[in-house]
Amino acid sequence: MPLPVIVVHGGATKYREEHIPAIIHAVEHSAETGLKVLDKGGSAIAAAEAAIWALEETDLFTAGRGARPNRDGYVELNAMIMDGNKLESGAVIAVQDVVHPISLARYVLERTPNYQVAGLGAKKLYDEMIESGYRMESSPGETKNTPMGEGHDTVGCVVVDSHSRIASASSTSGWPGQLPGRVGDSPIIGAGVYANEVAAASCTGRGEQILRIVMGRMAVLYVEEGLGPKEASAKTMRLLKEKTSGEAGLILVDKKGNVGLGFDTPHMPVAVAYSGQDTYSSMTPEWPPSYRT
Ligand code: ASP
What we know:
By secondary structure, the chain is α+β, with helices and mostly antiparallel strands. The protein is built from 7 helices and 12 strands. It has helices at residues 20-39, 44-57, 101-111, 119-132, 207-212, 215-224, 229-243, and strands at 5-9, 77-83, 88-95, 116-118, 155-160, 166-172, 193-195, 199-205, 248-254, 259-263, 270-274, 280-282.
């Protein structure tokens, strides 16, 4: 497949009918935002940040401006970004008063020797990031609380740039009403997000189930073992079903730009954007789409 490519998802969940057009528009816009970065020669990491930022900026997903409060009524955000070729990642966990945790996750990746920063430390790092001019302040506190789905809808993406560099990312406020401090799979390396020089995966859905099978790492491993992303996604979904109660999904891409995806929920909005081609999007995606095979 032609490089670059970007795939984004808006959560393995069930959306209310009336929100579907906006959700589809948002994932398409996100993928196209990332693709623009790639088409200008930007890196996979830069495209992943831009795509996730675009989804965080809507109030449609349980991430960024759409973040939902925990049991005690406040929002804690998680985000992760991984550079596959360097095998390095940046994650922020249970951070408060931040609108775009994906940028902070990238800051952890690029500007600190650490991979995972949580809570108060992450908020302090955010203040340092703004002060350093790495990113601009994004009207703090302006998060809305509009449930679109019937639970949770993390956002994620996988990217391969024109130099075959691979990245994976996710952003979430976790489950609405979750225990304060609860952390799912999304900011955990190998569970919600994984990338190496062979492939990248981003997972969504029941974090506790995803963690049990280290889902992102397993999907990438299956590609390393010789499966194409389509078969590797199917095998990962079979493992999820065999070992857990499921309710999850994933997007997967290999370094050549081949895409795989799988989900066992009613919806998993996905957009796939290859350079120079029409963007594919669906609430119940299949790849390759039947009309293209
Ligand atoms: N996986 C996320 C979590 O468990 C939720 C989601 O993907 O929607 O926190």
